[in-house]
């Protein structure tokens, strides 16, 4: 037990196995061995061991709570919810079970119940920073970012070095448009072990805002394609300060960035990096340039489609109507956040009632062909192709209708009028209670009022399009 508390999982595992060999009828060593193996990344074996403990003594809430987290790691959400609810029935004030169940329900879209559980967890463990962080997440998903910031503040008062709470606080502040402290807190992502990317390690120093005139500055993406499109605009600001700017871009985006003149040199991710004096990831740039709502570099278009490809895509997507509208309704199917962003095919049926519109399919990328689509729209298909072709296709359109995917960023960067459909608690960059975007002047935002209810959103989009046909 002491080894486990000190983080020496290997020694703890040996100790627990020794106890089990001597007294296999005792439940607790089976449970603790399962917990240790789960922490070692072996959830299948952990499940068997904790279920053995429950078989020996099913009245311990901790066993069911930890089994729930193992089942979540195994992506069995239904079984995980059952275990966590059972733990709460056994111990109504079990803070961990309450908080973990709240987290699971947030992922299922049950935001009101999740918020209630998160509040109960804080009441049960008022000095637990994780409980307050979890409450902040529940408030954020319920679209109450001010209350979320207050919860994160309490978590950080209890544990000032709590990296995840700092990161979550950054997202809540940015959602409120409080950019100076929000982008400052953004740097804590590198201290959170769960962040999906790691900071790059180069011999040259990281740029921290010092003078860059006459220096070679290397800028690079760290997250998805949408973020790369969004933040590559800052390369032009670095050039304006007198730096020689080298930009690394995802393969599909590199031709667009090179054509648009945002940097002195563009390389493709994975290529050899030329010598440089300083470096910075894209998402550090808003902080380094001290971005506020009033100083966002919002001049568009800042990406330029290939004119020759534009001509090709115009012919390839030729229809009969006087208005050409591109449609994109789903992002990366492997991303958990897409569960709320994606628009079901059936929800798009009202768009079919609009006359004189040619609907052009912008649903590209892996799995796009397999996605259900509304047959009534008669989508014009142009087939798969590189991002440069998609950009050229978008440049031929009168409007783009899309959910929150890379297509929204690409259309915005190209300056194409775009109707963006957002779920009830969207990404921080879309702010709150606004129908416009300070990042992309050509975007108009349509927001869910009730979680999961796309009908009013699609109806408002249809009305807006009908007035422009």
Q: How many structurally independent domains?
A: 3
What is the typical, i.e. mean, pLDDT? 93
Helix share bin: 40-55%
The number of helical elements comes to 21
Structural class: alpha/beta
Largest sheet report? 5 strands, parallel
In the CATH scheme, the class of the largest domain would be: Mainly Alpha
Distance between the termini: 70 Å
Low-confidence stretches: none
Spell out the CATH superfamily of the largest domain: Tetratricopeptide repeat domain
Strand content: 5-15%
Q: What string, H for helix and E for strand, traces the elements in order?
A: HHHHHHHHHHHHEHHEHEEHHEHEHEHEEH
Question: Strand order of the main beta sheet, please?
Answer: 6-5-7-8-9
**CATH architecture grouping of the largest domain:** Alpha Horseshoe
**Strand segment count:** 9
């Amino acid at each position: 037990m002491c080894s486990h508390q000190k983080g020496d999982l290997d020694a703890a595992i040996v100790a627990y196995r020794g106890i089990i060999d001597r007294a296999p009828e005792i439940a607790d060593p089976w449970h603790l061995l399962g917990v240790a193996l789960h922490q070692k990344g072996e959830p299948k074996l952990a499940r068997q061991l904790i279920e053995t403990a429950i078989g020996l003594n099913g009245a311990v809430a901790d066993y069911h709570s930890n089994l729930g987290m193992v089942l979540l790691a195994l992506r069995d959400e239904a079984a995980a919810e059952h275990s966590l609810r059972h733990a709460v029935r056994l111990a109504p004030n079990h803070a961990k079970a309450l908080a973990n169940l709240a987290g699971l329900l947030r992922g299922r879209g049950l935001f009101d119940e999740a918020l209630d559980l998160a509040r109960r967890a804080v009441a049960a463990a008022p000095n637990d920073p994780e409980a307050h962080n979890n409450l902040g997440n529940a408030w954020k998903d319920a679209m109450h970012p001010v209350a979320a910031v207050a919860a994160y503040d309490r978590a950080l008062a209890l544990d000032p070095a709590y990296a995840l709470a700092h990161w979550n606080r950054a997202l809540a502040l940015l959602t409120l448009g409080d950019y100076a402290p929000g982008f400052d807190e953004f740097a804590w992502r590198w201290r959170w072990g769960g962040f999906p990317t790691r900071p790059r390690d180069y011999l040259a120093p990281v740029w921290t805002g010092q003078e860059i005139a006459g220096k070679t500055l290397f800028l690079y993406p760290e997250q998805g394609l949408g973020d790369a499109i969004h933040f590559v605009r800052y390369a032009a600001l670095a050039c304006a300060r007198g730096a020689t700017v080298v930009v690394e871009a995802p393969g599909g985006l590199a031709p667009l960035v090179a054509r648009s003149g945002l940097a002195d040199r563009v390389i493709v991710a994975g290529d050899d990096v030329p010598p440089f004096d300083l470096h910075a990831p894209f998402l550090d740039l808003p902080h380094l340039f001290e971005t506020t709502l009033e100083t966002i570099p919002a001049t568009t278009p800042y990406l330029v489609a290939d004119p020759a490809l534009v001509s090709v895509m115009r012919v390839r997507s030729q229809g009969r109507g006087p208005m050409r509208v591109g449609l994109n309704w789903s992002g990366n199917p492997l991303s958990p956040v897409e569960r709320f962003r994606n628009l079901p095919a059936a929800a798009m049926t009202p768009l079919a009632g609009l006359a004189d519109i040619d609907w052009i399919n912008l649903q590209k990328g892996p799995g796009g062909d397999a996605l259900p689509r509304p047959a009534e729209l008669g989508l014009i298909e142009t087939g798969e192709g590189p991002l440069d072709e998609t950009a050229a296709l978008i440049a031929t359109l009168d409007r783009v209708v899309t959910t929150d995917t890379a297509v929204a960023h690409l259309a915005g960067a190209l300056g194409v009028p775009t109707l963006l459909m957002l779920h009830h608690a969207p990404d921080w960059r879309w702010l709150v209670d606004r129908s416009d975007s300070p990042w992309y002047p050509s975007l108009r935002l349509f927001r869910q009022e009730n979680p999961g209810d796309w009908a009013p959103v699609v109806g408002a989009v249809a009305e807006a399009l009908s007035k422009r046909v």
